[in-house]
Amino acid sequence: MIPTFESDRFEPSRETTRSIGKLLFGATGTAFVLGLVTLLPGVDRLLPGTDVSIGALVRAVAALVVAGTLVYTASGLATLVAPTGRGELSRNAASIGYWLSALAAVLISHWGLAPLVAGLFGGLLWVYDTAFLLAALGPLLVIAVRLYASLDPAADVFAEKVSKGGT
């Protein structure tokens, strides 16, 4: 669900902000621990009977955890990113925040799963890349459309702020 803002002012509750922050800090911690795990001795060893390393498996799991967290918190992030005003610019900012989160989840999943897929399906890696390319185009297109739709409202706000409301 993509949030919309019709009221004069939106202020997220402390509990909502805390929950989103906790999930994002957890995802960041997972990524940090993943970096440390890749430094451990023996992580580059292949799993028996496959061309997949232990590190590739750990990387895939961690990437899916981070991507899942981004998808889960996307609507909450949109509410935190949106300006406190109302109107088209606020709705566009919220939508851009939401779809940036979705795009980041797709890109992180691609990055994290790539070594695992390469080890298992080496010759079909182009199918994997094509699938993620198609998955990333949707959010990217929405972001581009919302940025374009924000040009006039953003220019109006900029002109008003710079000229101090003058004509």
From TrEMBL:
Record-annotated membrane-spanning stretches: 20-40, 60-81, 93-113, 125-149
Keyword terms: Membrane, Transmembrane, Transmembrane helix
Highest rank taxon of the organism: Archaea
Protein name: Putative membrane protein
Organism: Halapricum desulfuricans
